[in-house]
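Hey, can you fold this one?
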Amino acid sequence: MAAGVDNPLLPLVELFAQGRDIGLHVALARNAHGAARALFDPVIGRIRELASTGILLSGPGEEGALLGGVRPQPLPPGRGWLVTRREGRRVVRFPWVPPAP
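Sure. Predicted structure:
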């Protein structure tokens, strides 16, 4: 994702709060290293402000709380935290399926 004025999602930031009403879904994936610094990006910051649902996979704990007060931590492959506003956090698992031949 491009930072600053080059970010293609920047025009949509104002619509994030109405996402459920208008059917807007944003999937954001990034490396956990340096994620605390990325929270100052307007797009990521707005998603965090709205307490959007997120999945936090394995990462370094020194990054601090990234989603709903949950800090990254080393986790086994395929395991993560699902963080929601209503339910808090819970462990989720992701299976790996080999690609079809």
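Residues 4-93 form a domain with the Rossmann fold fold (CATH 3.40.50.300). Let me know if you want another pass with a different chain boundary.
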